[in-house]
Amino acid sequence: MWHYPVPKGDSVLSDSLLVEIDGAVATVTLNRPAAMNALNSELRRDLAAAMRALETDANVRVVILTGAGTRAFTAGLDLKELGSQGLGAANAEGPDENPVKAIEQLSKPCIGAINGVAITGGFEVALACDVLIASENARFADTHARVGIMPGWGLSQKLSRLIGPYRARELSLTGNFLDAATACQWGLVNRVIAADELLPTAKRLAADMATIDPAFSAAYKRLIDDGYGMTFDAGMALEATRSVAANSRVSADAVEAARTAVQARGRAQ
User: What is the pTM assigned to this prediction?
Assistant: First the structure.
């Protein structure tokens, strides 16, 4: 598989992270299957470098993030490495150490294709993606409390907002696993797919997203993300402000041309 070149000055990608480009879609694979794709320091640095490179590549419009094999998306931080180096990575702010920050460098949509377990820090990495789809092998667990480490990559705040505080407390205060079907019922993932169809499905979804103008896609994603942390009224005000600014630059002819294309696409679906 072709290894994506990183900009000069960034760390060279190793076999622990693979990037495959197919048209406008990049598939990034965490590739430490023997270690359940655990995020050691090398892999975290490589992920940050890859995301920086993909962000600046004008030919790439959508990114898919997945794990190698069928056992794990990622088991989170490499606890063996942490045991010798300390817990600094659990609270790191920079993208080279914090994989959530690495993913957040992307203004482009990022689809999480969850192929196996997403545990603790791996759960947080999954939640950094814009859309989640899961194979039937996927399971989610927050074991922070069982390990005795407070989450530092966003899980305590994001999870309750996505599935509600009661369900979030159940997961976080038991450390129990959540299977893919229940995760879908709870709204954590969009759909559950047979393992051999996970990446083809993710690539079809990415191909649909890639047909949207990239500047518009980035602005719309930013509007959703910025408004999510606000009250409803503040979010509505934000939408109104940005809508007026953006729509004032759109001509009637452009709307008519787009309408025709949208109608044709709708009839074909």
Answer: 0.89
